[in-house]
Amino acid sequence: MAKEYLKLVMLLLVLTHHVDPASIIRSLPGFEGPLPFELETGYIGVGEAEEVQLFYYFIKSERNPEEDPLLIYLTGGPGCSSLNGFLQENGPLAIKTDGYNGGIPSLVTTTYSWTKVASIIYIDQPVWTGFSYSRTPLVDIPSDTGVAKTVHEFLQKWLGKHPDFVSNPFYVCGNSYSGKVVPAIVQEISRGDPLTYTDQDHNYQIPFAHGMALISDELYEGSIREWRRCDVDIPYKKDIISSVPYHKNNSINGYSSLIFSGDHDMEVPPLATQAWIRSLNYSIIDDWRPWMINNQVAGYTRTYANKMTFATVKGGGHTMDFKPMESFIMFQRWISGQRI
Question: Could you say which residues form the signal peptide (predicted)?
């Protein structure tokens, strides 16, 4: 997979350096024929002199873009390209790995793309992620709170260039580390100006692995006191210790939220997610129950007061590429106001 991905990224790199600030892409290397959806790529400048240039992929809803929700989708890391979301998680294309023998990898359409019911902006952020860059040396290291302000500025300028989407329902989505920043972005945007507790999430990894019978009783007893979180060595300041206050503020102010976990996620175990949700002390509106696809259990869900829904995806891991179809059906029901 790594070689195929690299070759495709190199081709996209050539394309992005020969386009205007915003360009409509009608075909992609590795995909036969014209794209069956509307794809726009480009840059939005942020900062006083627009020194930071954030790259994005925008895909119009394949259903009804005039009325369907508009989503900003952020991947984790920090520092993971949004191409991960586009090609591996919830986008309309995927890399075909079967039968690959070198050369340009083939791209195939997916049946589980969230763009079937929503328009999505995938952003390469923070700066130096993917194709995003800075025209000048950075004065400040990118940070959680800085990303919240940057994404807000990005959105304002993007909507200025795409006024047809100003009145669409709007959502901010993210997975992995972005789950920690998304609530801060929502608060930043709402004021008009997935990860929550990183350390605590990792503290649940050993108990979760023990409960799943992945490690023995002896190993569990010997490891529980020695567990340390592994920090990622990148130029980024993690200055939001907990996103729980942001979640609380957003939900009290009437913003609905869907928080979901793969039930086999060892990076941020569902036990950790349920623990911080319980800490909010919200009353339960719809208690713990299975949610179904074709009469089969696809996961479990619970709905709380203040429009907060938690769901698990059966057999899911840390990101949606483990169970893309189930994740899509869950998202489609929730975004449409249906009971998951």
Answer: 1-21
